[in-house]
């Protein structure tokens, strides 16, 4: 990728996919306890950062879903992350120009905003040549959203607690699989889906260790669940159509909703099969968003 001289630092913000998501309880503050295996897709947003005058924080929005975020203004998670980092560093005079290229649909269960926030934290630490210790960084990330801690590392991980307990997993068997992501254009706000679950909690069923072979991983995932799938379908029945279409598409060996929806994913034996499946789904449903690719392999080079 060529570097824009105005934005010398670039960080990928890959889509987060909950390969399974068990909701096991609720804390007194209303946040839910989760047991999830999270992976990251090659498909994602891009956060770029460059120098600006003292204290200035500006954000340009680009990409197909940039306009969908224009109304959020200063509430954009990228700017909230930047302000949070500056405050945690105790250096309000730090400034940056930021650009977010928004490829992922918004409020879609694939942690687009969370991954953007995590990418902004990584980009600004590099631009400003500053570091936070890991305890401070984790606290800042969690304050921005329950999904932000897992997005900081952007590697396959077990997620527990409310999202604050993140343990990377050796994901060699996952690395070669393909992912197709499909969103029917419906926004599903996360709180509404947790509310619709109505306290019907499931048991944790952590997949540990991960089988070595891709076939073993797929079989083990097939025996697990997304506990938010039924409540999401109750709020937004088209999610069931997305799952049915994925299940009927050549090359898709497992289909499930990610996060609180409405995006669903199909796992494919490899990247090429996922690209073919996405093209087929775009042909069948031109109004839907569908993206195929491999697993995310690593952050942008400095
Ligand atoms: C459900 C998950 C699963 O990975 O994914 P998404 O659907 O967002 O992608 C996440 O836990 C979402 O994380 P995130 O979207 O960052 O959540 P936050 O902004 O912190 O919280 C939004 C709202 O979701 C609910 N919430 C979120 C996380 C959690 N563990 N329990 C909850 O009950 C709360 O109602 C909270 O007010
Ligand atoms: N950079 C951003 N990208 C996406 N959503 C954002 C961003 N900044 C703020 N938001 C707000 O955060 C909410 C959750 O967005 P998102 O992270 O895409 O959802 P989800 O966690 O369900 O995948 C949306 O209501 C959106 O308006």
TrEMBL record:
Ranges for domain GHMP kinase N-terminal come to 76-152
Q: What does this protein do?
A: Catalyzes the phosphorylation of the position 2 hydroxy group of 4-diphosphocytidyl-2C-methyl-D-erythritol.
**What region holds the GHMP kinase C-terminal domain?**
225-283
Under the heading PANTHER family, the entry gives: 4-DIPHOSPHOCYTIDYL-2-C-METHYL-D-ERYTHRITOL KINASE, CHLOROPLASTIC
- The entry's ATP-binding residues are 105-115
Which reaction does this chain catalyze? 4-CDP-2-C-methyl-D-erythritol + ATP = 4-CDP-2-C-methyl-D-erythritol 2-phosphate + ADP + H(+)
Stated EC number for the protein is 2.7.1.148
Question: What protein does this entry describe?
Answer: 4-diphosphocytidyl-2-C-methyl-D-erythritol kinase
Name the pathway it acts in: Isoprenoid biosynthesis; isopentenyl diphosphate biosynthesis via DXP pathway; isopentenyl diphosphate from 1-deoxy-D-xylulose 5-phosphate: step 3/6
- Name the UniProt key words of this record, in alphabetical order: ATP-binding, Isoprene biosynthesis, Kinase, Nucleotide-binding, Transferase
Q: Which residues cross the membrane?
A: none
Q: Which organism is it from?
A: Zavarzinia compransoris
What's this protein's family per the entry? Belongs to the GHMP kinase family. IspE subfamily.
Q: Which residues form the active site?
A: 16, 147
Q: Name one GO molecular function term.
A: 4-(cytidine 5'-diphospho)-2-C-methyl-D-erythritol kinase activity
Asked if the Swiss-Prot or TrEMBL record annotates the protein with the keyword ATP-binding, the reply is: yes
Keyword Transferase: yes or no?
yes
Task: Give the enzyme class.
Answer: transferase
What are the recorded Gene Ontology BP terms? isopentenyl diphosphate biosynthetic process, methylerythritol 4-phosphate pathway; terpenoid biosynthetic process
């Amino acid at each position: 990728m060529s570097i824009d001289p105005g934005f010398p630092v670039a960080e990928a913000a890959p889509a987060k996919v909950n390969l399974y998501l068990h909701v096991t309880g609720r804390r007194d503050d209303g946040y839910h306890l989760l047991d999830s295996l999270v992976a990251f897709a090659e498909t994602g947003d891009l956060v770029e950062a460059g120098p600006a005058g003292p204290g200035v924080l500006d954000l340009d929005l680009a990409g197909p879903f940039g306009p969908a975020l224009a109304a959020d203004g200063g509430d954009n998670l990228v700017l909230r992350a930047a302000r949070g980092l500056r405050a945690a560093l105790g250096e309000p005079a730090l400034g940056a120009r930021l650009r977010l290229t928004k490829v992922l649909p918004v409020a879609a269960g694939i942690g687009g905003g969370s991954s953007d926030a995590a990418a902004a934290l990584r980009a600004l630490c590099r631009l400003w040549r500053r570091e936070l210790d890991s305890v401070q960084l984790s606290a800042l990330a969690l304050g921005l959203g329950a999904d932000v801690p897992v997005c900081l590392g952007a590697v396959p991980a077990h997620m527990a607690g409310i999202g604050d307990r993140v343990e990377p997993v050796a994901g060699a068997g996952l690395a070669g699989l393909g992912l197709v992501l499909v969103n029917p254009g419906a926004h599903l706000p996360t709180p509404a889906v947790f509310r619709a679950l109505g306290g019907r909690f499931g048991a944790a069923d952590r997949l540990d260790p991960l089988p070595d072979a891709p076939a073993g991983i797929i079989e083990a995932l097939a025996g697990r669940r997304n506990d938010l799938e039924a409540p999401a379908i109750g709020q937004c029945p088209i999610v069931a159509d997305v799952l049915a279409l994925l299940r009927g598409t050549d090359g898709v060996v497992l289909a499930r909703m990610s996060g609180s929806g409405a995006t669903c994913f199909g796992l494919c034996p490899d990247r090429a099969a996922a690209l073919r499946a996405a093209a087929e789904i775009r042909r069948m449903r031109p109004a839907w968003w569908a993206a195929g690719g491999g697993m995310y392999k690593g952050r942008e080079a400095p």
